[in-house]
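User: Hi! I have a protein structure encoded as tokens and I'd like to know what sequence might fold into it. I'm fairly new to this, so please keep things simple.
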């Protein structure tokens, strides 16, 4: 587990931390999907979880077996928010006709094989998994 200040400027470090154990094993397409999901989650925490105040995000990454998959967990003690409760955007509409927001978590759900949210002991815990 590694703790990062919830600030956009730390996104490259978060991505490097997550990819480092598997960098050589990941195809470019898989790296891109994981990076998009990580960026969406981390940036949303940085922008919204702490209402403009300073906060932190704990990130855990581990490789699980049978099947082999990357599991990433984001923990913050900001405002309670379950992004999975937000309805998916209607992507059949033109961009200018859609409501703002929701596309990033929609793509995260599409790109990851598993995504779960829970709220425990004052913490938002979002877990994503990608089969390798």
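Assistant: Happy to help. Inverse folding works backwards from shape to sequence: for each of the 132 positions I chose a residue that suits the local structure. Here it is:
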């Amino acid at each position: 587990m590694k703790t990062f200040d919830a600030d956009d400027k730390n996104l490259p470090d978060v991505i490097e931390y997550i990819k480092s154990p598997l960098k050589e094993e990941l195809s470019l397409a898989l790296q891109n999907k994981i990076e998009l999901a990580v960026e969406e989650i981390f940036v949303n925490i940085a922008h919204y979880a702490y209402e403009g105040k300073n906060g932190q995000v704990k990130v855990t990454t581990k490789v699980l077996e049978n099947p082999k998959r990357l599991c990433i967990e984001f923990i913050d003690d900001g405002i309670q928010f379950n992004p999975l409760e937000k309805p998916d955007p209607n992507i059949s509409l033109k961009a200018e006709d859609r409501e703002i927001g929701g596309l990033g978590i929609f793509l995260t759900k599409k790109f990851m094989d598993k995504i779960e949210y829970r709220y425990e002991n004052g913490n938002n815990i979002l877990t994503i998994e990608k089969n390798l």
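A useful reference point when you look it over: The chain has a mean pLDDT of 88. Feel free to ask if any position seems puzzling.
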